[in-house]
Amino acid sequence: MLKAEYAIIFYVLLIVFSLLLVRMLSKKYLKPVKYRKVKESISAYLYLLPSFVVLGIFVFWPIFYSFYLSFFKWDFQNQDNPIFIGFQNYIELFKLNQPVNITFNEAFFNTLLIFMTAIFIIHLIFDLKKIKKPRQKYLIISMSILGILSLLTINLIPYLNVISALILVVVYTILLSLHFIDQMSNKIFLRIITFIGLWIAFYSLGVPEIIKFLSLAKEQSLFIKAIWNTTYYVLLSTPITILFALLIALLLNRKLYGKTFFRTVYFIPFVTSVVAISLVWQWIFNDNGLLNYILTQIGFSKIPWLKDQKFTIPTVAIISIWKMVGYYAIIFLAGLQNIDKTYYEAAEVDGATPFQKFQFITLPLLSPTTFFIIIVAMIGAFKVFDEIFILYVGMPGPYNNSGMTMVYYVYDMFYVQQRMGRASAAAYVLFGIILLFTILQMRSSRSRIHYES
């Protein structure tokens, strides 16, 4: 026992002596400025250590552990001993209950072939005279003929759509690398050509096959339907919310009486409980609710807001827009008030109209705030869950899973069906989709964001 106590005392004295020796050597051989920086960094990290510990236990560890469990069959029967199944959870998410009439290969390459053929035909019509090199002229003509022949015989020759689409993509990539598109100096003309190309590609031969494939596949896979409904909700709610928020912010930025009161009124829905908001809107959307009462008084017939599946996502979008528009309006208002007034005064001296001030001063200088709001609004829209759960009393829509979103799918898999491995896989697919959209927005917005400095 005494030997153990002596050992402990010896190790403590050795640690203390080592620390003192390191301190003396650092003061003697290291520059005082560098030593001070190291000391300040160590002190700062020691102050942050409790936060790192809390974040590590309650945030980082669950994130990494859930990703690890997404590769296991971890359900109610295998809670103690999960079974490693690799990517099977991810494959099961996109597995169709019954095969659809069209394959994804046909859908994707047919649409790609239509799009690329339209691009070559447009260049053949508008830009053939501008091309000086004969090789490029012959290349454009031959590729356009190849695309047209492929479209005419697309159902007669197997894999013709794949071969033709890939050839057109490769050739167009080569032409882009040779700065072929840069010969068109008129940006407006380039936009018109792009618009016509998209129109021909998507509507000249009817609805694209890839849209048919997705519309059929979402009825055979619940997770694909969740992605479809979530994307529909994001595209419907996010632009409208941002547009209304900007309009409200522009009104509140004017010299109006009672601006503080209106700011508070617009901001109240954001801080109100989602449960209370959803219950109130449930009464508003009811068959005998306030909205149908107003419609009948005007002369319209009642609309089954909560009973028809085609109104599921729009009703949820209305609630979300009403709830979030005030919050984003306040952020827009802060961005508007940070714009220096001298820009507007100089524009008035030059005779600029109010619309020109908005176009050339407000929008460019408000672009950092707009970029932030777009990112935050899109991420929040992808995580919609509470409104659906309360509005439809714990069900994903009235019927046919019309309100099934990706977060609701994760909730249903984890809490209801006790299939935690698949729920983890679905959560990481959602994370990947949000990350992809965020990266695309950040890269596409670099040249459009203007800072005052």
Automatic annotation (TrEMBL):
<keyword id="KW-0813">Transport</keyword>
<protein>
    <submittedName>
        <fullName>Sugar ABC transporter permease</fullName>
    </submittedName>
</protein>
<feature type="transmembrane region" description="Helical">
    <location>
        <begin position="6"/>
        <end position="25"/>
    </location>
</feature>
<keyword id="KW-1003">Cell membrane</keyword>
<keyword id="KW-1133">Transmembrane helix</keyword>
<feature type="transmembrane region" description="Helical">
    <location>
        <begin position="359"/>
        <end position="382"/>
    </location>
</feature>
<feature type="transmembrane region" description="Helical">
    <location>
        <begin position="231"/>
        <end position="252"/>
    </location>
</feature>
<dbReference type="InterPro" id="IPR035906">
    <property type="entry name" value="MetI-like_sf"/>
</dbReference>
<comment type="similarity">
    <text>Belongs to the binding-protein-dependent transport system permease family.</text>
</comment>
<dbReference type="InterPro" id="IPR051393">
    <property type="entry name" value="ABC_transporter_permease"/>
</dbReference>
<feature type="domain" description="ABC transmembrane type-1">
    <location>
        <begin position="227"/>
        <end position="441"/>
    </location>
</feature>
<dbReference type="Pfam" id="PF00528">
    <property type="entry name" value="BPD_transp_1"/>
</dbReference>
<feature type="transmembrane region" description="Helical">
    <location>
        <begin position="45"/>
        <end position="68"/>
    </location>
</feature>
<feature type="transmembrane region" description="Helical">
    <location>
        <begin position="389"/>
        <end position="411"/>
    </location>
</feature>
<keyword id="KW-0812">Transmembrane</keyword>
<feature type="transmembrane region" description="Helical">
    <location>
        <begin position="423"/>
        <end position="440"/>
    </location>
</feature>
<dbReference type="GO" id="GO:0055085">
    <property type="term" value="P:transmembrane transport"/>
</dbReference>
<keyword id="KW-0472">Membrane</keyword>
<feature type="transmembrane region" description="Helical">
    <location>
        <begin position="188"/>
        <end position="211"/>
    </location>
</feature>
<dbReference type="GO" id="GO:0005886">
    <property type="term" value="C:plasma membrane"/>
</dbReference>
<feature type="transmembrane region" description="Helical">
    <location>
        <begin position="318"/>
        <end position="339"/>
    </location>
</feature>
<feature type="transmembrane region" description="Helical">
    <location>
        <begin position="264"/>
        <end position="284"/>
    </location>
</feature>
<dbReference type="InterPro" id="IPR000515">
    <property type="entry name" value="MetI-like"/>
</dbReference>
<feature type="transmembrane region" description="Helical">
    <location>
        <begin position="138"/>
        <end position="157"/>
    </location>
</feature>
<feature type="transmembrane region" description="Helical">
    <location>
        <begin position="107"/>
        <end position="126"/>
    </location>
</feature>
<feature type="transmembrane region" description="Helical">
    <location>
        <begin position="163"/>
        <end position="181"/>
    </location>
</feature>
